[in-house]
Amino acid sequence: MATFIPESRSSRLISHEAAFEPVRRALVAAASEGATVFPAVIARASDPRNTFSIKSGATAELAGLKVGAFWHENPARGLPRHNSTILLIDQDCGRIGAVVEAAAANAYRTAAADAVAAKALARPDSGTLAIFGAGNQALYEVGALARILPLTRLHVVAREREKAESFAARLGQQGVTLDVRVSTPEEACRAADVIVTATPARAPLFEAAWVRPGTHVAGMGSDARGKHELPTALYERARLFCDLPSQSIEIGEFQHVRERIEAGALVLNPIGAVLDGRCPGRTAPDEITVFDSSGIALQDLYIGQFLLDAAMAAPDED
What we know:
By secondary structure, the protein is α/β, with parallel strands linked by helices. Helix content is 34%, strand content 23%. Belongs to the ornithine cyclodeaminase/mu-crystallin family.
């Protein structure tokens, strides 16, 4: 019988600190031989506003999939819009070994990829962060980065000013204290050492000319065809990284320059190759680095295994 870990349990077991190492290991595995990430399936339910995705993969250690769902009217029912369920496959017999509800863990997992990449690519003295988006995922991104960078100031850019203004209070509830300012896209970019986008945008959120030398830029929102947060003109003067090149050019930010990457005009590096020392990360203080996180199945599998191990280590908690 498969082990079942409900959301009430997994949400207590996960944290920014807990998510960091499993996600780092997943990104290294993705850039290594013997790991496979299969093409993501992006689907719609009978109500086309409701969507779900299936991301699957395998390594020598793990195999399985994650089903992520976005249900438009859930808030009116008192339910979260986003849900996530991880299925770990027993590779000895092919049966489902564990089912892990992981809505909260998914937010931590996504933010951990941002933090892992920033630790490798951002200037270690980075003190000012610009965040595009003021939703739930943006909170997690800031929390993850504040743990590994010496951040003191945050510029928030959002379509709804009220939401941006409440961002500081919501951060405080998570124990993150920064000097928070509501800014225009240009103000935020010109001040930032690190720029992070966490939106469902389908057009660039800022201009390439606004990005200062030495900035690290992370696109966290593009995970389907047509999504687009970063200006492609920026790539001409930056070094480019992603979680998985084959997926990034399909559904991530680099789908918009796929032909140039495939022609060799732009070089796209897997962040896992940086993490295990096969590819240089930042090479100069004034270098611009760009990281695209399209969200890969191996991150979910390693997070799922962590949650399974943690639950088994404390079986009497519930």
